[in-house]
Amino acid sequence: MYFNDFKQNIEVANEKELVALLQKRYSNNSNHFILSHNASGLPELSFFVKENVCVAYYIVDDDFNYVSQSNLDLEKNVMFYENDTGAETILSKDCVIRTDCIETACVYFFKYNKIPPMIDWEEL
Hints:
Blueprint: E1 2-4, E2 9-11, H1 15-22, E3 30-36, E4 44-50, E5 53-59, E6 65-68, E7 78-81, E8 88-91, E9 97-98, H2 102-112, E10 121-123
Antiparallel strand pairs: 1-2, 1-3, 3-4, 4-5, 5-6, 5-9, 6-10, 7-8
């Protein structure tokens, strides 16, 4: 599987290697993971991560895309980082979930190359 984050773009050979990569945090205790089984990049599972919250995206193609549905009661939108140099992006509070789902969702995607069912999704 192809794995991209703030610092690297590599091929992941096994679940153990994937789980270790998912623990990485860089500036501002953040990261942005992009996972795909195909060199073309689709389907793609990605996470904007900051501290203990994240926003997940599942991109199938130009017509079918999904974003996580929040399970938190947040008062305002959340700023995440697009890269390690500090480029910011504000994402809707309605999409923010806890990071405790990342490992399970990514391992599921690694095994089955399908949308992880342990996340509630909204079609975009």
